[in-house]
Amino acid sequence: MIRTSDLGREVALRGGPRVVKVPNIRDARRDMYRQQIISAAEFEFARAGFDKTKVTDIARTADVSLATVYKNFAGKDEIWDALNRQRMDEFIAAGRHALEDADTPLNRLFSAMRALVAYFTEHPNYLRLHINEGLNWATAGVDWGRGNQRAAWQTGLDIMVALAEDVIASGETPSMRPSVLAGLAVSALQVWLTDWANSGCDRPADEVARELVEYMKRSLTNRSVAERSS
């Protein structure tokens, strides 16, 4: 016997999984509208900045009515927070995946940097809105940013500091504060990504990452360690 309920509720199947979730078309439509609005807002924030972007601009770019925007979000601040929460979850997941095959603390740091290059080059509007803030990513301070942007950036910095602690403990780099090593990595990342964006995104992400990591190797390691990390 198969017993089904309304869409979006539970489905019981004899001999199979005890419960199967069936998508609710209303929820799917809501998610589609929210994602469309978030993507449009990301474009507008990158183009004009948060302060100059109006909800009407977001609605126009998303090709939805103003009422639809307000049906899904309370306003611009909530859209901003949803965007940064989504991007934070994505780049943390990308970074964790990149660390799985790294065999030394230094290679884990380099793998994280490669993953961040790949992530930001795949999301150029998110990169552009951070570039347009005009601040040093590594030293902007805890009061930098707004809403979930601040939390997302601090989470990323905390991860880099934790990676740097392991690198320094391993002896693969000269002794320094983990926050300094993390700051050097993040600052270099900003320089290479900003150059890429301001040059019209003119080369592949792996080329940017390779050049960045080679610079870090030359700057931070002695010759024998650099060769082992190749």
Give the topology, please:
Layout: E1 2-4, E2 10-13, E3 20-21, H1 25-48, H2 55-62, H3 66-72, H4 76-99, H5 105-122, H6 124-131, H7 148-170, H8 178-198, H9 205-220, H10 223-228
Antiparallel strand pairs: 1-2, 2-3
Account of the 3D structure:
The protein has 230 residues and is mainly alpha-helical. It has two domains: 2-73, Arc Repressor Mutant, subunit A (Orthogonal Bundle), CATH 1.10.10.60; 80-228, Tetracycline Repressor, domain 2 (Orthogonal Bundle). 67% of the residues lie in helices and 4% in strands. The chain has helices at residues 25-48, 55-62, 66-72, 76-99, 105-122, 124-131, 148-170, 178-198, 205-220, 223-228, and strands at 2-4, 10-13, 20-21. Strands 1-2-3 form a three-stranded antiparallel β-sheet, with no helix packed on it. Strand 2 (10-13) and strand 3 form a beta hairpin. The radius of gyration is 22 Å and the shape is globular. The N and C termini lie far apart (60 Å). The model is unreliable at 1-13 and 223-227 (pLDDT under 50).
Write a brief structural summary.
With 230 residues, the chain is mainly alpha-helical. It has helices at 25-48, 55-62, 66-72, 76-99, 105-122, 124-131, 148-170, 178-198, 205-220, 223-228, and strands at residues 2-4, 10-13, 20-21. Strands 1-2-3 form a 3-stranded antiparallel sheet, with no helix packed on it.
- SS-based structural class? mainly alpha
**Judging by the overall fold, what is the CATH architecture of the largest domain?**
Orthogonal Bundle
Rg from Cα: 22 Å
Count of DSSP strands: 3
Order of helices and strands: EEEHHHHHHHHHH
Per CATH, what is the topology of the largest domain? Answer: Tetracycline Repressor, domain 2
Q: Could you name the CATH homologous superfamily of the largest domain?
A: Tetracycline Repressor, domain 2
Uncertain segments: 1-13, 223-227
The end-to-end distance, rounded to whole angstroms, is 60 Å
Helix content: 55-70%
Q: How many discrete domains?
A: 2
Strand arrangement within the widest β-sheet reads: 1-2-3
| CATH top level assignment of the largest domain | Mainly Alpha
Helical run tally = 10
Q: Could you tell me the strand content as a percent range?
A: under 5%
Name the overall outline: globular
